Amino acid sequence: xxxxxxxxxxxxxxxxxxxxxxxxxxxxxxxxxxxxxxxxxxxxxxxxxxxxxxxxxxxxxxxxxxxxxxxxxxxxxxxxxxxxxxxxxxxxxxxxxxxxxxxxxxxxxxxxxxxxxxxxxxxxxxxxxxxxxxxxxxxxxxxxxxxxxxxxxxxxxxxxxxxxxxxxxxxxxxxxxxxxxxxxxxxxxxx
Amino acid sequence: xxxxxxxxxxxxxxxxxxxxxxxxxxxxxxxxxxxxxxxxxxxxxxxxxxxxxxxxxxxxxxxxxxxxxxxxxxxxxxxxxxxxxxxxxxxxxxxxxxxxxxxxxxxxxxxxxxxxxxxxxxxxxxxxxxxxxxxxxxxxxxxxxxxxxxxxxxxxxxxxxxxxxxxxxxxxxxxxxxxxxxxxxxxxxxxxxxxxxxxxxxxxxxxxxxxxxxxxxxxxxxxxxxxxxxxxxxxx
Lengths: 191, 236
What we know:
The complex is a heterodimer of chains A (191) and B (236).
Chain A: H1 10-23, H2 26-47, H3 52-69, H4 80-98, H5 122-139, H6 144-154, H7 160-167, H8 171-184
Helix pairs in contact in A: 1-2, 2-3, 2-4, 3-4, 6-8, 7-8
Chain B: H1 8-16, H2 21-33, H3 35-53, H4 66-76, E1 125-128, E2 131-138, E3 144-150, E4 159-161, E5 165-171, E6 174-176, E7 179-181, E8 186-189, E9 194-195, E10 198-199, E11 205-211, E12 215-217, H5 225-231
Antiparallel strand pairs in B: 1-2, 2-3, 3-11, 4-9, 4-12, 5-8, 5-11, 6-7, 6-10
Helix pairs in contact in B: 1-3, 2-3
C-alpha cells in the first residue's frame, strides 16, 4: 500500500481520481491518499493548531468522501485539488456547525455545492479552466502581505474581521489587501 | 440585470467557508440569480485550492500514520458507505404553485430546507396593513432569518440597524434613498445605517432578510413596533 513520495503533476491526480471514479482503482486511491492526506491534515491544523486527532478524523472523513463521491467529479470543470478542497471546506463547515462557531439550524448542504455547480455548460467549463490557470500563475507573484491575508482567510478559516483583529490592522486594510490580491488573480468583481 | 452584488470579501468568505451560515444563505440565494457572481465564486474556490495545494507541510512535520491508511482502506469495503447520490439539484425542486394573484414564484433551492412548497405555506404574521413577516430560523448567535412580504407601494417604517442586515430581493422590487433594488439584488447594511424602503407600485415584494441584531424603529409613530419585534420576529 505504501508508495514512495514522488512529486506528481496536477494531471496525475486528476487521472487517479478518474480511475477511482470509473474503475474503483485502489492503487490510484492509495496515490491520492498519499498526496492529499498530509494536505488535509495541515488544512485542519492551520485552523485548529495542535488538534492532531481532529485533523486525522477530518482528513479520514474527506478521503472516504473522495472514494464515495468520485463519480460526481467532473474533470472538465475543476482539477482534482479544487474538487478535494471543496470537500475539505465543506467538512470544515460541517464541523463548525456541530461545534460552537456556526451553531445553526441552517443546513450547509443547501448552501455550498461542490464545484461545479450542477448543469454547467462547456462554455462555463472552459471559463473555469482558464480562470484556474490564471489563478495558479498569479499566486506566486503576490506580495507577501496579500498572500498572508488570503492564507488566513482560506486556510485558517478566518473572516476578514478576525484577520484584521489578529494582525492588528484596520478592517479596511485587510479588505483592500484581499481585493488587490484577487484583482491580480483576475477575479473581476462587480460592485 | 442585477446592480447590487455581495462585496468581494463577502464572496471570498463564502468561498472559503468562513462566512456565518445565515449570511451564506443570502449569498447562496444571490448566486442562484447571478451568473457573474457564480463565476466569481468558483474562481475564488480555485484560489482556495491553490493555497490548499501549496501548504507548507514541514510545519506539521509528523508523517501520516500507516495505521490510518489501513483504517481508511478497510472502510472502503463497507457496503453501507457506497456511492452517494448526487446532491439535490436546482431542477429537482418542484415549481411552487401559483399564488393567489396568479404568479408562480420559485422558491430558491437554498431556502427549500425551510419552505416546503410555496411561500404561501409559511406562517405569515401581519405586522402592519401592508407588511407580513415569516421567520425561518433563529441562530444561537442571535441572528434571525426571515422573509418579509410587502404589498405593492407599501412603505416600510423608518428604522436603524443595531447590527448588520442582509437583504436579498426574492420577488418584486423596492427602493430607498440609494436606489432601486430588484429580484436577485443583494444589499448589506451596516449597523447605524438608517433607511426607509418603499416597495414599487407594480407588484408585491418578497425579501429574504438576515439580521445580526434586532433593528430599531426610529420614527415617532413606529417606535411602538420595537417591543413587538424584539419579542416576536425579524423585520427589515
